[in-house]
């Protein structure tokens, strides 16, 4: 089977996680770069990685890479590519674009020239004098130019991978599903240990934890744009999906809890968990953060509390951070992972973090404050 050069795109700060996921899936030639990871694979691998990558945004085929300093060079090198191997005669192929630190800096012009070059090539190959219909399957293309280096890619995913399909409703400032999965993976939580999200909102973090715990492919509930292409066989798609289904283990007993002070959010979280088929694995309950008590050991807390972006909210939020400190500091064997854009978090929590990690929640710079638990050894 033909092998493609592929990239999985990701939010800044979590590319390393995507690289790890690909290695765990069995890909060895993995190269982590800014906001993306390169690897190689067949059509089967394209579907498999779309289905299994928890922290990536998209899986793209690299059609070509070259240097272009003039519009002529961009046109000729784009036109020279075997577009008919990718696009059907009636393919709809929108071209998105971006350009940084390059001579060809006008994005609309760059997009128009790439589009024109592809139309010319397709018209020649298919002996067309009239306009191409573009009424068929969608092939989303992107031209990205960075320091005069052109990267032409074909998106195999469609709507971003964070759209798992289980979120019927969301609350204010929701966390994307792939970011929630990244927080769970960064917490190094083991499915046999207790897991708590004390400010669970619409339930995304506990749901992602349950999917990880049950070994459920995050893309099982949705389709990908490449599944509508004629050269992507539905048999291959069915086979990869059946293999993913066979790996899911619904019998693993999980101890996952999600709490929120807002009763309405708890109801939304339950609806979303039910849509994901995971309501039986998560205990949702209305509870204020400061009322959390437990006698369990070696648990993991992952929280994405309100950040207090508006000054009017800041005092309230910082009061919440100090309640977090009072509630969690006594839990010596528990690890706590708290994401916030308030870089003074430690002052209000009243404890230095074991480690901080910079992550971007959308375009917002946030830090993951990590407090590592002291492990209790089992007493024999």
UniProtKB/TrEMBL annotation:
<dbReference type="GO" id="GO:0008990">
    <property type="term" value="F:rRNA (guanine-N2-)-methyltransferase activity"/>
</dbReference>
<keyword id="KW-0694">RNA-binding</keyword>
<protein>
    <recommendedName>
        <fullName>THUMP domain-containing protein</fullName>
    </recommendedName>
</protein>
<dbReference type="InterPro" id="IPR002052">
    <property type="entry name" value="DNA_methylase_N6_adenine_CS"/>
</dbReference>
<dbReference type="InterPro" id="IPR000241">
    <property type="entry name" value="RlmKL-like_Mtase"/>
</dbReference>
<dbReference type="GO" id="GO:0070043">
    <property type="term" value="F:rRNA (guanine-N7-)-methyltransferase activity"/>
</dbReference>
<dbReference type="Pfam" id="PF22020">
    <property type="entry name" value="RlmL_1st"/>
</dbReference>
<dbReference type="Pfam" id="PF01170">
    <property type="entry name" value="UPF0020"/>
</dbReference>
<dbReference type="Pfam" id="PF02926">
    <property type="entry name" value="THUMP"/>
</dbReference>
<dbReference type="InterPro" id="IPR004114">
    <property type="entry name" value="THUMP_dom"/>
</dbReference>
<dbReference type="InterPro" id="IPR054170">
    <property type="entry name" value="RlmL_1st"/>
</dbReference>
<dbReference type="InterPro" id="IPR053943">
    <property type="entry name" value="RlmKL-like_Mtase_CS"/>
</dbReference>
<keyword id="KW-0489">Methyltransferase</keyword>
<dbReference type="GO" id="GO:0003723">
    <property type="term" value="F:RNA binding"/>
</dbReference>
<feature type="domain" description="THUMP">
    <location>
        <begin position="45"/>
        <end position="156"/>
    </location>
</feature>
<keyword id="KW-0808">Transferase</keyword>
<dbReference type="InterPro" id="IPR029063">
    <property type="entry name" value="SAM-dependent_MTases_sf"/>
</dbReference>
């Amino acid at each position: 089977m033909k092998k493609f050069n592929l990239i999985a795109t990701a939010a800044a700060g979590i590319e390393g996680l995507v690289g790890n996921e690909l290695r765990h899936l069995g890909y060895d030639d993995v190269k982590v770069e800014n906001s993306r990871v390169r690897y190689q694979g067949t059509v089967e691998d394209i579907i498999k990685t779309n289905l299994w990558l928890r922290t990536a945004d998209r899986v793209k085929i690299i059609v070509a890479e070259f240097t272009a300093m003039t519009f002529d060079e961009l046109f000729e090198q784009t036109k020279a590519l075997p577009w008919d191997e990718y696009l059907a005669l009636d393919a709809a192929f929108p071209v998105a674009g971006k350009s940084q630190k390059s001579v060809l800096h006008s994005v609309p012009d760059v997009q128009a020239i790439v589009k024109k070059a592809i139309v010319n090539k397709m018209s020649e190959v298919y002996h067309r004098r009239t306009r191409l219909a573009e009424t068929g399957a969608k092939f989303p293309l992107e031209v990205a130019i960075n320091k005069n280096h052109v990267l032409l890619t074909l998106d195999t995913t469609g709507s971003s991978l964070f759209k798992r399909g289980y979120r019927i409703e969301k609350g204010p400032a929701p966390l994307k599903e792939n970011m929630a999965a990244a927080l769970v993976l960064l917490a190094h939580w083991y499915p046999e240990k207790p897991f708590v999200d004390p400010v669970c909102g619409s339930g995304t973090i506990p749901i992602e934890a349950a999917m990880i715990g049950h070994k459920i492919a995050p893309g099982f509930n949705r389709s990908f744009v490449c599944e509508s292409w004629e050269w992507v066989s539905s048999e291959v798609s069915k086979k990869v999906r059946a293999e993913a289904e066979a790996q899911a283990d619904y019998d693993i007993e999980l101890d996952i809890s999600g709490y929120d002070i807002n009763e309405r959010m708890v109801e939304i979280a339950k609806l979303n968990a039910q849509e994901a088929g995971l309501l039986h694995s998560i205990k949702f309950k209305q509870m204020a953060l400061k009322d959390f008590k437990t006698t369990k050991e070696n648990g993991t807390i992952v929280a994405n509390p309100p950040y207090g972006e508006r000054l009017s909210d800041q005092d309230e939020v910082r009061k919440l951070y100090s309640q977090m400190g009072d509630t969690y500091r006594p839990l010596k064997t528990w690890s706590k992972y708290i994401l916030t854009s308030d870089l003074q978090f430690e002052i209000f929590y009243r404890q230095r973090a074991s480690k901080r990690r910079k992550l971007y929640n959308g375009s917002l710079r946030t830090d993951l404050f990590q407090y590592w638990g002291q492990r209790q050894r089992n007493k024999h």
